[in-house]
Amino acid sequence: MQETASTDPATAAGSGRIVVEGLGKRFGPVEAVHDLSFTVEPGSVTGFLGPNGSGKTTTLRMILGLVVPSTGRALVDGVPFSALTSPGRVVGAVLEVQGVHPRRTARAHLRAAAAAIGVPDSRVDEVLTLVGLAAAADRSAGGFSLGMNQRLALAVALLGDPRILVLDEPGNGLDPDGIAWLRSFLQAFAASGRSVLVSSHQLAEMELTAQRLVVIDRGACRFDGTVAELRAGHGSRVLVRAADPARLAEALATDGITEIDRVDDGVLAVGGADAVRVGDLALAAGVAVYGMSEERAGLEQMFLRLLAGEEQR
Ligand SMILES: Nc1ncnc2c1ncn2[C@@H]1O[C@H](COP(=O)(O)OP(=O)(O)OP(=O)(O)O)[C@@H](O)[C@H]1O
């Protein structure tokens, strides 16, 4: 079927976006993905989170034209992946790290991959440097660690200088330094106006890497928004040490703040209000405050609450 050119800027060709609309996939009795819609905007990293078997890989494979959707559609840079004329120059993807021939060097592997998408050899050294493998360029891939293989796979994805990156669990096998490096690499890539969609089950890491999050569970979307929105909805608390906690609790309650726990001697944990509001109310009530801090619930905890909440529906 011929796709007609869209006039909607969200789905227009050349938008640099990934647009997923009502996407679904059924494998026999298993509904792997159900009515999923989200957009990956240029200039930001979008984290794609979900527990094992939640449908992340299936979704990424549909975006990349490797699995045919049962319902809906996925557009890459305004068109279905299959309609891209030079896909390697538009979207770079790392789905699962394929074994490289063990006797092949990183450079030889990249040269072959470059030739396959019509990219000059000169790009090979550039991507080796970009992923931090320049010093290992002439070593056989057989001796590479999992982390080095991840970097090599990323180098292949970058050969066509794509404007969109799609990565399935790229942090797997990376040590803490490698994870920090990947985080700054993806952030810099996005900051140059390009789009990143990265799946992970490492929620705390995504909180640091991504601006937007799409959380799925059992194939369906549970959350789509910014990290700040997720935090706001599954909240952080203000810890306040006060001279007279009972009077402060009373003043807060009078103002409609009832989520109050006494966590320590003289310390109240207050939910549903920020530090400014708690401080102002303490001042108005004449209660001395000796210290305040924000207890930011870990994304992991929020994520578990999110899934637990959905299960009760
Ligand atoms: N080719 C297939 N045939 C049958 N079922 C499949 C196929 N691919 C995936 N599934 C099923 O679809 C569901 C979603 O799998 P998927 O691999 O997309 O999840 P995931 O979130 O990527 O999981 P993980 O984090 O473990 O990789 C699972 O129940 C899986 O068994």
Automatic annotation (TrEMBL):
MF GO annotations: ATP binding; ATP hydrolysis activity
UniProtKB keywords: ATP-binding, Nucleotide-binding, Transport
Listed Pfam families: ABC_tran
Keyword ATP-binding: yes
Residue stretches making up the ABC transporter domain: 18-243
Family as reported in the entry's similarity comment: Belongs to the ABC transporter superfamily.
PANTHER family: ABC TRANSPORTER, ATP-BINDING PROTEIN
Protein name, entry field: ABC-2 type transport system ATP-binding protein
